[in-house]
Sequence to fold (492 residues):
Amino acid sequence: MNDERRIQELIRSLPGPEGEPAIRERLRAEFMAGMPGAENPAVDAAARAARSAGSGGRDGVPDGRRRVIPFRVGLVGLAVAASLLALFFLWPRGPQWTVTGVTGEGFVTVAGATYRAEEAMEKMPSRLPPGTLVSAEGGVMVDLMTPDFLAIQLAPGSEMETPGGVEQNDPSKLVGRVTRGEVRFVTGEKFRGSRLELETAAAQVIVTGTTFAVITDPDTTCVCVLEGTVTMVGPGGKAAAVEGGTRRTLYRGTGEAHLEEILPMERMKLQMLRDTVRSRAAGSAAGGGAASGSAGSGGAAGTEDANGTGAGSGG
Amino acid sequence: MRRLEPEALGAFFDRYFPLIHGLAFRLLGNPAQAEDVCQDVFLRVHRGLYRLDTSRDPAPWLATIVGNACREFWRGKHYRAGRRSVPISEIGDWQDDHPRSADTPESEMLRAEQQRRVRRAILDLPDPLREVVVLHDFQRLTHQEIADAVGASHDAIRKRHSRALARLAEALKERGS
Fold:
């Protein structure tokens, strides 16, 4: 058997990926209902053309939709409810995190102990103290929350330290770390007046109330915001606001940043998480809080001749 | 289907999601990016359904749309920059290696490692070469169909395919597959 034939057989023997079931179901429902992105063809076409052409200048935002993003440092605003939050933060080292779900196939590692996904809910600790290192391996997704305060979702391949309070003189401030992958966050009613700071390799992310995701690897950090505003602080302390409906990617080596619209799949995943948190809060007798923020704005997928034939890159 | 009745759309989705998702993942190598492209593809499919010739297999048409969507993705700035930092561990983490109960743990581990090397080698190919390999060897499109899809000549696609397979053979020899 010659080399080419051998390689082709190797390639064809690779099994296919299955995709995240929840995403597949949601996409199926959208397809049957007519796909939300079909509603704004002019906007979609502009976004698609700009993305294809790589236009929009340094930030990558299409000219017709360029936003002026004011640079400001995130401020901690203590609301009236801070007194209740102060009580909350008298817990040693900050809030406890409840594991509310482990889905998919793979492994969950919590504080150095590894559990298979199918037995994780049964065997791993149901409550995690702040500062616990949690990772989701293979196709596993892990959901954590402190009721009415903050919900966290670790996507497959991600790892983070659960947030905790570290400063006695500022009990409303939580600090956590996202070491790799994609982690999504939804703040709740009781988060109001708090501040969450997330450390990554390339940036610091400061949150005062929103639904967003942090995607990170050793060289880049991307913050995708569905609703609300997140502050991203890069090397040298330079801060930028990331508003609802946008994503900002910071490159550790160069310090370069790119701003663009939130990607459709990111929007969908954050909406799913937010909806789940809200319905859980609405249905829970003990919880009762709803995630903050209103629906995010921003464009959906681009339009194009969907026949799909024709020119791509040439010979 | 062309009247966009939900049941027919659902059946179409169920039948072709594995093809679309599998192709996108093999071209991009990243589950999140593949999901994003899938959503884009299904949007385009939905818009093009009224022109669908239901007497013909839509698979080549769908493969073309996926290829176009991935090519647009590759042209994106954040993709080009991020490509430098894709860790090799991402490839091994994707849980598509279903253990077969008759295999020993050792042989299963060896197979998984070989699959990981092959996936890594495919992802290391330049985008145009990877595209031809994936469309031809996974999707079973002919060289002519691929040429029509990407706007290149049949001869150019055939040469790209050969170059791709040669590079894969070399890469896998170096990695011990």
Observations:
- Confidence is low (pLDDT under 50) at residues 37-52, 54-92, 285-315 of chain A.
- Chain A touches chain B through 75 residues (CB under 8 Å).
- The radius of gyration of chain A is 21 Å.
- The longest helix of chain A spans residues 264-283.
